[in-house]
Amino acid sequence: MLAILIGYYFYPPLAGWLDELAQVKQRWSYLYSGLSAIVAGAFIPELMRILVFQKARIRRSNFHNLLFTIPYWCTMGISVDFFYRCQASWFGEQVTLAVVVKKVIVDQFIYNPLFAAPVSAWLYDWKNRGFPRTGLAEFFTASYYRNTIIPILFATWGVWIPLVAMLYSLPSTLQIPLFALALTIWVMIYTWMSEQRISHKIR
Hints:
The protein is mainly alpha-helical. It has a domain of 122 residues. The chain is built from 7 helices and no strands. The longest helix is centred in the middle third of the chain and has 32 residues. The chain starts with a helix and ends with a helix. The relative contact order is 0.14.
């Protein structure tokens, strides 16, 4: 991501290609956000799971995973796009240190603790438990937030604070396309953490 950021400002061929990508994002709007998040957050991580962990063997569980991850990441991709647009309207689209810092703070210390981290934890835990109809009240307790969501937040900050700082240092129309680039590795990390947490509870 850092190489892309530097290349955008100092390597005109890359800047030209990224500007064309930004035009595609502008034309497709939220449709681009949803589709790119599906590819980055659902298809590529599941493909990597099949190739790396399952030795290229497709299982029924892979299709079950996609039934969850496709609508989930489509919705999250659109919500992130909406949030980025709100940030641009609140703080402006200028790439200055003050603007970038404000966006990073709101992103990582308000949006994530109050929305993104809890929703992701709730839904991934619900899915990994087999979508039970009972016991859901646990998700809304202080102990669940302390024991589950706070560790997730520390992992999130380690990955996303530098990433969103670089994203917000680019034009607004490029932020979602490059968000999708970072999303794939994060989904693989997050999926592993979520599944390990549930397996430890089962033991």
